[in-house]
Amino acid sequence: MERFIRTDQYHFIKNQAHNLLNGHMTTNDASVTQALKSITNEKVLELFTDLSPDQEQLIAQASEVKDETDAILYFSRLKQYVVPFPKLTEADIQTLFPKVKKLRVPTIPDEEWTELSYIGWNDASANRKYIITTVDGNLTGLYGHYKPLQQKSICSICHEHEKVGMFTATFKGKNDEETISRGNYICHDSKKCNENIQSREPLESFIKRMKA
Description:
With 212 residues, the protein is an alpha+beta fold. It has helices spanning 7-26, 30-45, 53-60, 68-79, 90-96, 190-196, 201-211; strands at 119-123, 128-135, 138-154, 161-172, 179-187. It folds into 2 domains: 7-80, Monooxygenase; 90-211, no CATH class. A 5-stranded antiparallel β-sheet has the order 1-2-3-4-5, with helices on one face. Helix 1 packs antiparallel against helix 2. The longest helix has 20 residues, at 7-26. 25% of the residues are buried. Residues 4-86 form the Elongation factor G-binding protein N-terminal domain. This is Elongation factor G-binding protein. Residues 100-203 form the Elongation factor G-binding protein C-terminal treble-clef zinc-finger domain.
């Protein structure tokens, strides 16, 4: 069976299975747990269209998670079918940011590529944050000024309450003298942000909004 699960779908399924696991741990009412199983099964299957019988069977197993051991084994099996983020070389990344001199490129361990909906990293020395993702199937890079905040807020990318900073991207306007700046709060920790993403829509909307 080929890989067919997006990273955001993988995290969504994990979240639903954890919710079900918490239900098993907090109630002994069989009718309640059965209802939770049905809801979990419905939600995870709604993520996909045209699943093969083997694919549907794999996804539906999320509703069979009863304890931590079940969860660990299931997530390990599920991850084998996650489509990883396209592996980029340092040269690939440099190409996406042609105007940036002395670009500091992050090192990403092999096991993390299946956890990524986007590549993001901070360059504290330049007060910048960099983001690479796909929008409408095309690889794109975005960078801007980044100022960390001292308190938590809602991230525009993952929509979770996390430690964030103000990300501001600046572009040239219709003439060379005009500049346009757009900003929003996003997670300081891009790895944690990726773990929170359960839908690509906010991520792609953020990129399009920043670059519009």
